[in-house]
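Internal tracking record. Fields below are filled automatically when a chain is submitted to the structure queue. Please do not edit lines marked as system-generated. If the sequence contains nonstandard residues, flag them in the REMARKS field before resubmitting.
Queue: standard
Priority: normal
Entity type: single polypeptide chain
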Amino acid sequence: MKLNHFKNHAITKVSLLLAMVILVASCNKTLPDATPIIYPDANAVNTSLGEVISTDPSYSFYKAAVTRAGMLPLLSDSSKIFTLLLPNNDAFIASGIPSEAVIGALPIASVAGIVQYSIIPGEQFLSTDTSLNKFPNLQLPTSLTIGVLPGTTIPLKMSVFLSKRSNSFWANTIPVLSPDHKYKNGVIHLVGGIVAPPSKLLKDAIYTDPNLSYFKAAIARADSGATGLGKLDSLLGYGVTNMTILVPNDAAFQTLIFGLAFQSYLSRRPTPYTATDTSNATATANGAVAAGPIFLSTNNVTTAQVKGIMAYHFLATNTPAGYQPNIRVFSNNFATTPGVFYTTLVNTSVPPTLQPGVMAQATFTGPFVSNLQFTGVHTFPPTGPPYAGPAATAISKDNFAVNGVYHVIDKVLLPQ
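SYSTEM-GENERATED OUTPUT FOLLOWS
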């Protein structure tokens, strides 16, 4: 099997720290200019966001939440300015909160987190803001503080990600049903559901999933010999990263392992292969699968091979420090046309002209992605030209974590 080897120096401590600084700067940066607000009428000019929430009965659930969180005075303060991602009562119900009584029974910290994550302070952003029309999205810090930058007193704000394609507009993956309601101290975008903040790191979310045990084992093998922030495991557990990971499930790894063991056995037999050879190869492959994730720590595969495969599942962009895993891509941010490529950590050691990355395509049904597929350059066993093999399908999309998003796929992608 020919695989592009992921060089041990591809992710270095220095380059990762640079990526973290870039990320923190993007999370806490001065917000870009937005399109000027044109108020629809005199009432809007004189009405604060807090007054709208307090007087419109369709926002009574949100009023209960913002009152419980102690933030209604903030939204009523005309000396400040906000972009508010506002769920009405129907949006709360659609998100599984059927009454104000349920809001009153939730822990205050949970309610405060939901409210703070819905508020983007310091600027008014419209759906017509041209900066929204970019890949993958516009990252904006909310009012939700998740800690401080390690070694400093600089607060870290949990970001929300706004994106726009054609006539659709999203906050993360939640559709904005009615944008650009302009008021005295800000703008409201009515969202179709609660835009909820994440609660886990990528490492915690992935490693505790019983259907992703091979991925955890593959990360451990790929990190052999690496230390500190040079480890993929460290990235998964570092709260200020901003990543997108394609995570093959256990069945996907089992299919790959079966093929590797089957081919390995036959490669030691003279051709033409007999029926006995094929039968023995099948038995050997079944045994390799039965061994479980431990196969990935044996001499059947090398550390470089596993590292190359895993690096191919981390999306990355080109920075002065090389390709970095600094991009959060939700399903609705991927292209809808075929043949669009997204670079990965493999591109730290291979020019994009030789390794264009992973090919991805999203299919929409209404405002939601109904199908998301990824195609790798290499198929196993080889079946033709690059990107000729069957695509991997995302069987679980948009798993949102503090430090990134991951899509669970049903095939292992191979870089070369």
